[in-house]
Amino acid sequence: MIVKGILGVLLAIGASYYFVGPILLNDKPHEVPKLVEKNWGPAGVKEDSSIRPFKIDIPKDVIVDLQKRLSNTRELTPPLENTGWTYGISGASLTKILDHWRNKYDWYKRQELLNKYPQFLTRIQGLDIHYIHAKPAKTVSNGKTLRVLPLLIVHGWPGSVVEFQKIIPMLTTPRPDADFVFEVIAPSLPGYGFSQGAVRPGLGHAQIGVIFKNLMTRLGFDKFYTQGGDWGSAVTSDIAILFPERVLGSHLNMCWVSGGQAMFWQVLGSFFPSLVVDAKYASKMYPMSQHWSRTIEESGYFHLQATKPDTVGVGLNNSPAGLAAYILEKFSTWTNPEYRFREDGDLLDKYTLDELLDNVMIYWVTNSITTSVRLYAESFSAENRNKFDHLQSYVPTACAVFPHEILYISEKIAKLRFKNLTQFNHLPRGGHFAAFEEPKILSDDLWTFVKNLENP
Ligand SMILES: *[C@@H]1O[C@H](CO)[C@@H](O)[C@H](O)[C@H]1NC(C)=O
């Protein structure tokens, strides 16, 4: 027992030094780095603080060209027998999806639905940023005037603001047990969909945090709440860390902590799980070897995008079949890892094919898959990693933990980074795309978090 203990501590220290360096037990409040507010746009672009109404309106020739390409798709390779989606998306499933896309999916009808909420463009640090701005329909409930709380909600990859179509009204509609309601600002990440991408290197998640902070300033919001999953979780955490005086509360699905301390506790926990995680959730972290091999199995895309994003982008930008395969595989496996064993990837268990294709279309019609995957390269450059990943947040924070989320950290590990973690809920259903898949559960968790902060 003693030998095992000493071995565990040594291994944990060794691993955290090896991966992160000698900042292991330094728990002193960090200094917040000052970021230069760089211009990311094309040379000579003028600053322009106007706010321009925007509607999605894709030229007809783009849709005609898409139809042609879909018709010219070469025969897809059938999957190996009884392998489901474990070799990647099944050619048999994709053939059916492409048939629907070509013959049943009606872009003009879908475009109208996607224009349901008011959208705008405004130029920040040289880039045109696209965002949905949805105000509450009414601000009086039971004769009482409600407080309207601004909420910045941020998507990730390979998603888009399409993921928020269902959750927005759940946030902007008053609830009988709350004396506030949300006004939702949902931007597209730079280089995603209708937001312009950078022309020079360096725009990682922290720098996007600066752009979105400036967006909120432009809209007149001094203080606001944030919500984010995937890259949105990183971006909104950055805003809380860099500009704590601006953020009333930070609600995250997919909480993540990197750095020496997290590594230390994770490795130590493989010897003494009870030091790190409640017994009930220990199997979500241990045995570590099992989780690491799963992570390696699912993260090939990540390494590629973090190193050679432009190469990956070429094929995807030219083939709608390739783009749909690349994106939809994630909507199967990241919604539930068991789906990959099913013949059809069980895509339609939680989504309609039309709404899945809406999200693929956002990448297709804007030709933005390459600029979207560059975010991995920018965020994992040595410079950006060393500058931000160890920083702690002191803003009130909630982690909404969905059972099929692709990464798991325990509450103890979350507290290493989120120093004011006021809510940490294990939710009953759902995976990585929580807003898209389980909007009711996610919005309930957010309302509870904010209610506890607003009415302590
Ligand atoms: C956490 O945030 C709440 C709300 O701002 C505040 O009242 C509380 O003192 C904070 N707690 C810590 C430990 O900072």
From TrEMBL:
Molecular-function annotations in GO: cis-stilbene-oxide hydrolase activity
Coiled coil: none
Transmembrane regions: 6-25
Compartments, as annotated in UniProt: Endoplasmic reticulum membrane; Microsome membrane
Keyword match Transit peptide: no
Keywords, comma-separated and alphabetical: Aromatic hydrocarbons catabolism, Endoplasmic reticulum, Hydrolase, Membrane, Transmembrane, Transmembrane helix
Keyword Endoplasmic reticulum on entry: yes
Protein origin, superkingdom: Eukaryota
Residue ranges constituting the Epoxide hydrolase N-terminal domain according to the UniProt record: 51-164
InterPro entries named among the record's database cross-references: AB_hydrolase_fold (IPR029058), Epox_hydrolase-like (IPR000639), Epoxide_hydro_N (IPR010497), Epoxide_hydrolase (IPR016292)
GO cellular component, one term: endoplasmic reticulum membrane
Pfam family, one: EHN
EC id: 3.3.2.9
Catalytic reaction equation(s): 1-(4-methoxyphenyl)-N-methyl-N-[(3-methyloxetan-3-yl)methyl]methanamine + H2O = 2-{[(4-methoxybenzyl)(methyl)amino]methyl}-2-methylpropane-1,3-diol; cis-stilbene oxide + H2O = (1R,2R)-hydrobenzoin
Lipid bilayer topology: Single-pass membrane protein
Family according to the record: Belongs to the peptidase S33 family.
Record function comment: Catalyzes juvenile hormone hydrolysis.
Official protein name in the record: Epoxide hydrolase
